Structure formats: C-alpha cells, structure tokens
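Appendix C: a fully annotated inverse folding record. The material below is reproduced so that readers can follow the format used throughout the book. The structure is listed first as tokens, followed by the designed sequence.
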C-alpha cells in the first residue's frame, strides 16, 4: 500500500486521539499524560504524519524553542513499517519546512540506549551537543543540527 507524508494543518489538539493511538503502538508503556499534558501548550507546533491506507503509521512532532530553534520532541514509526526509510523521509520534510520558516537549528533529546534514533539523527547531520540524566535517572543524549538556509 502506498505511503503518504502529510503536514497536519489544523490545531494539534484536534489530532490528540489518533496521535495517542499511534503513540501507544510505537512506544512500549506509553503514558497518555506525557502527550496530553503538553500537546496544547506547544509553541508553533509542527506535526508531520505518515499515512498508509488512511491509517496513521508514523509522526514527528516539533515546536519552537526560541527565534531560530525548532525542538523535535516526539516521533516514531509503527513497528511493521520500520527499516524502510520512512523516519528518514519524515525528518527530511520536517527539516525542509523548518529551514523554509527561518529556523537555523533543530535540537532533539534521545535516550542514550536508543541506537536507531541516535544513528538516524547522526546520518542526517546532527552532532552530539550534550548529555544529561533525566528525572528517572536515565541517560539522554542531546543532538543538534544546523540547517542550511533556503534560497529566497
Ligand atoms: C527510530 C525510528 C523512528 C526509526 O524509524 P525507521 O523508519 O525504521 O528508520 P529508517 O528506516 O528511516 O532508518 C534511517 C536510518 O536510521 C538508522 N536506523 C534505523 N533503525 C535502526 C536500527 N534498528 N538499528 C540501527 N540503525 C537504525 C539507520 O542509520 C538508518 O539508515 P540505513 O537504513 O541507511 O542504515 C523507529 O525505530 C521508531 O519508531 N522507534 C520507536 C520510537 C522512538 O524511539 N522514537 C524516538 C524517540 S522520541
């Protein structure tokens, strides 16, 4: 079945129910409040979706953290669609839109044990920019990418 990529154009709060279903299928032990508590408070949210046969199969959600910084907060691909370059394509679209909107940097935090996500970021121009331990004592790698400016 064909895979499509789309930018969510409405309020992100209106995407909460299908997004929650997607998060539950992507992240083991997902806590609904993790998404719902923040979803309505994001500044300039940018939500990109992957759809297949009318069903959402992946997403990438970022938001503004300063004049020139897009923070890429949460994302993932349904298990059955992994390893086919879908997350890579989603990231390219997110970065292209960010650059076109004047952002100069993208930053993200990933648990240190999440090799697939850290490698994907490295393959797409991110550098390691820091390391911290989160509230649960889990190591988190901070990665940052400078975006190439788009031509006017
Ligand atoms: C991380 C994740 C988004 C990758 O999605 P994906 O569509 O399978 O990734 P892609 O097929 O686009 O892979 C692109 C690159 O990422 C890296 N990568 C992806 N999966 C990998 C794996 N299992 N092991 C090692 N590297 C991996 C590779 O560099 C790969 O490029 P290559 O195939 O040329 O080697 C997916 O595994 C996922 O949804 N994981 C659970 C959710 C998550 O961890 N989200 C991030 C934290 S919010």
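Designed amino acids, in order:
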């Amino acid at each position: 079945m064909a895979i499509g990529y789309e930018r969510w154009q409405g309020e992100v709060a209106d995407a909460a129910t299908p997004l929650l279903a997607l998060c539950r299928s992507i992240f083991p032990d997902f806590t609904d409040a993790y998404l719902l508590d923040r979803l309505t408070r994001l500044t300039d949210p940018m939500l990109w979706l992957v759809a297949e046969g009318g069903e959402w199969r992946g997403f990438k959600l970022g938001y503004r953290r300063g004049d020139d910084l897009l923070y890429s907060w949460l994302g993932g691909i349904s298990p059955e669609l992994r390893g086919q370059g879908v997350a890579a394509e989603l990231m390219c679209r997110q970065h292209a839109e960010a650059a076109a909107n004047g952002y100069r940097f993208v930053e993200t935090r990933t648990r240190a044990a999440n090799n697939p996500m850290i490698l994907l970021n490295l393959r797409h121009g991110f550098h390691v920019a820091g390391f911290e331990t989160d509230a649960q004592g889990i190591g988190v790698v901070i990665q940052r990418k400078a975006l190439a400016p788009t031509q006017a």
